[in-house]
Amino acid sequence: MIPTITAFEESPDRGQGLARDMPVRWAFEEVSQPYEVRLVSFSAMKESAHRTLQPFGQIPTYEDGDLVLFESGPIVLHIAEQHAGLLPNEANARARAITWMFAALSTVEPVIVQREVSMYLESDQPWHEERFRLVEDRIRSNLDALSARLGDGEWLDRSFSAGDLLMVQVLCRLSGSGILDSYLNLATYVRRGEARPAFKRAFEAQLAVFAGKSSSQAENDA
Ligand code: GTB
Question: Tens digit of pLDDT for each residue in 90-129?
């Protein structure tokens, strides 16, 4: 059975790969597994049929037979555990790769999301500038540490893993902020991730939705 995921019918990022179906698509592409996409509108996401799959009324979800998952991180982890290519076989290396997945989603990403919240929802507040500066300082502090750890390595722990996939995806959210410009190795790391054929296929598939095609139509066109 081919798993089905959900994605925005109309993504606010206009197909720039920032919505969270992107890491799931990328994971499927890395392990060369087909997947189907069901597009959902903002209103459908809040209805009980979708909330049965995703209690918070969000995308992405994952359905494979009886199994329903939500949250992009666990979905990527499940794909990585089911298929070779995203997690090392050796137990300690595998545990470290999973650690980087959590680091991406629970340490690096939350502050980046706070920056977006501050920018889009709090800009009219009298304390906005001070808060924004503090949030950017916290992002830089995380990036200082990440950059030091990556050094001149290609990936976070020897070979590419689901940890890199999620970390690159999280860092992509800083595109346009100028923050990554101060971290040459991290900017190169992100470009290295984006240059992977699997990333490109995933990106094109979600961009095709914005361009008014379903991903299956895009595949037929190819
Ligand atoms: N922790 C969950 C996960 O990782 O799966 C978060 C899921 C989530 O935030 N989903 C968002 C959603 O469904 C879409 S991705 N939002 C609808 C809602 O909450 O009503 C977040 C997102 C949306 C848009 C942009 N953008 O336009 O740049 C970037 C990221």
Answer: 999 999 999 999 999 999 999 999 999 999 999 999 999 9
Residue among 14, 47, 59, 120 to mutate when testing ligand 1 (max atoms within 8 A of CB): 59
Residue 19 CA, ligand 1 centroid: distance in Å: 6
Q: Which atom of ligand 1 is nearest to the CA of 60?
A: 5
Domains along the chain? 4-85+198-221 (3.40.30.10), 99-196 (1.20.1050.10)
Whole-number Å distance between alpha carbons of 33 and 54: 23
Note the pLDDT tens digit of each residue in 24-64: 999 999 999 999 999 999 999 999 999 999 999 999 999 99
Residue nearest to atom 12 of ligand 1 (CA): 58
Between CA 150 and CA 79 the distance in angstroms is 25
Question: pTM of the prediction?
Answer: 0.94
Contact 71 CB / ligand 1 (< 6 Å)? yes
Between the CA of residue 25 and those of 22, 54, 173, what are the distances in Å?
A: 5, 18, 17
Q: Whose CA is nearest to atom 27 of ligand 1?
A: 13
